[in-house]
Amino acid sequence: MLSKAGRIIVICASLFFVLQGSFADEIRLKNGKVFEGEITEEDSNCLIFRMKAGKVKFSLSDVGSIEKKPLPEDFFSKTESAPSPVNPQEDKDKAMPYDLSVRAFYDRQGDTVIVDVEGDAVFPDGASIELLIARRGVVMASGRTSVFGNKFFMDFKFSKRRLLPSVYTVTAIFTPERQTEDIKKLLLTNFASGTKARTAESRCLLYAGGMKEILCTEAEFKGRVCSSISKLEASRSELCRMYESSKRKFNAKEWNKWANSWALYLRGLQKKSDARNVLHPGAEDAVTVAANSLLKLQQYCDLEFKNPSVYNKVKNDPNTRINPEVMKKLLDEDGFEELTSYIRKEASITTGTGY
Questions:
Q1: For residue 195, what are the CA distances in angstroms to 7, 113, 177, 184, 288?
Q2: Do 288 and 269 contact (CB within 8 A), yes or no?
Q3: What does the alpha-carbon distance between residue 142 and residue 165 come to, in Å, rounded to a whole number?
Q4: What is the CATH number that goes with domain 4-84?
Q5: C-alpha closest to that of 200 among 100, 294, 102
């Protein structure tokens, strides 16, 4: 923030340059952004800055420096005259002085976890900011807060079991269409982008817990995924063995006894947890798909042995959604590998290394 003495020097310099010729004020914000135009109003807290696209309000606490630079004679007149054909996207980009940044902090207090989210936003006071905390595409929490003094903040509380040690993405979003009518009017009058206001978004990473704790949790959940894959592969192998055996000599009593216990074991893999309580929800979904596929395959095998005529009808029906003969490819280890490979991919497990 510039001192009072510094401001007096700049103002005096401005008067000198006005006598010598036309000069522009170049404002450099502390975040590195640079704007060129003319200071039209100023008080102890903020200044009004005129640019080609219109006027914008800056807080002095966000201003790093102000410099004088030569100002072309037609610098402002171009905007005031009839607009010439331009690229719409290029025009939109020029009229976007908005600035949005977000930060997040993790604090564990016993069995409660508090996530403090704060940020800077060059928007009118009262503007609404949407906040999202997500992990691997799953939104863990969301909320809305308002901008005051170009700042915003919000606290989120979780149970220790809900916010697992991991890396999260915190997103702040400003959407013009979701603002109140008063804010929309301010965007038209006080902000350079005016009717061209568009969505602004900022992200940051949140490390929930120490790195060792995060890595241990990751290893634990990958271990669970590997265990599910092993169970699926064992179930496929058992189904293949029984199918080949029953093709040679079918024993309905023996088949039914085996099928009941086999299906019961496999249904345990169908149970899905809340996506917010697992690190790899995509992998868990893929495990469920693989388990369902094996159960459907077993039903087709059961139909083939017990009612061949109906099985052949289903097999030859072009409207059958999943053809039995296509499903039988899963009996082969290579055919089933496509499903298990997808599970490993969703859990970021490298084949051959376990994790």
A1: 33, 41, 11, 9, 48
A2: yes
A3: 19
A4: 2.30.30.100
A5: 100
Q: At what angle do helices 308-316 and 281-306 cross, to 10 degrees?
A: 130
Domain ranges of the chain: 4-84, 100-209, 213-346
Q: What are phi and psi of 32, to 5 degrees?
A: 100, -15
* Residue 110 φ/ψ region, left for φ over 0, alpha for ψ in the -120 to 50 degree band, beta for the rest: left
Of 15, 270, 279, 46, nearest to 167 (Cα)?
279
CA atoms within 13 A on the CB side of 223: 6
**Cα separations (Å) of 55 from 1, 37, 44, 320?**
21, 9, 18, 65
Output the tens digit of pLDDT for each of the chain's 355 residues.
445 444 444 444 444 444 344 567 788 877 677 777 888 888 888 888 777 656 777 788 778 888 877 666 666 555 443 333 434 444 444 444 568 999 999 998 888 899 999 999 988 888 999 999 998 888 989 999 999 988 999 999 988 777 889 999 999 999 988 888 888 877 776 555 444 567 889 999 999 988 999 999 899 999 999 999 999 999 999 999 999 999 999 999 999 999 999 999 888 887 777 767 788 888 888 999 999 999 999 999 999 999 999 989 988 888 888 888 888 888 888 889 999 999 999 888 876 544 4
Q: Give the residue among 75, 36, 79, 42 at the shortest CA–CA distance from 58.
A: 42
Q: How many residues does the chain have?
A: 355
Please tell me whether residue 29 adopts helix, strand or coil conformation.
Answer: strand
Q: Determine the residue type at 40.
A: T
| Side-chain half-sphere exposure of 195, counting CA atoms within 13 A | 1
> Between the CA of residue 143 and those of 170, 181, 261, 319, what are the distances in Å?
11, 20, 47, 47
Q: What is the per-residue DSSP string for 106-162?
A: EEEETTEEEEEEEEEE-S-TT-EEEEEEEETTEEEEEEEEE-BTTEEEEEEEEETTT
Q: Could you tell me the CATH superfamily of domain 100-209?
A: Macroglobulin (MG2) domain (2.60.40.1930)
User: 150: how many CB neighbours lie within 10 A of its CB?
Assistant: 20
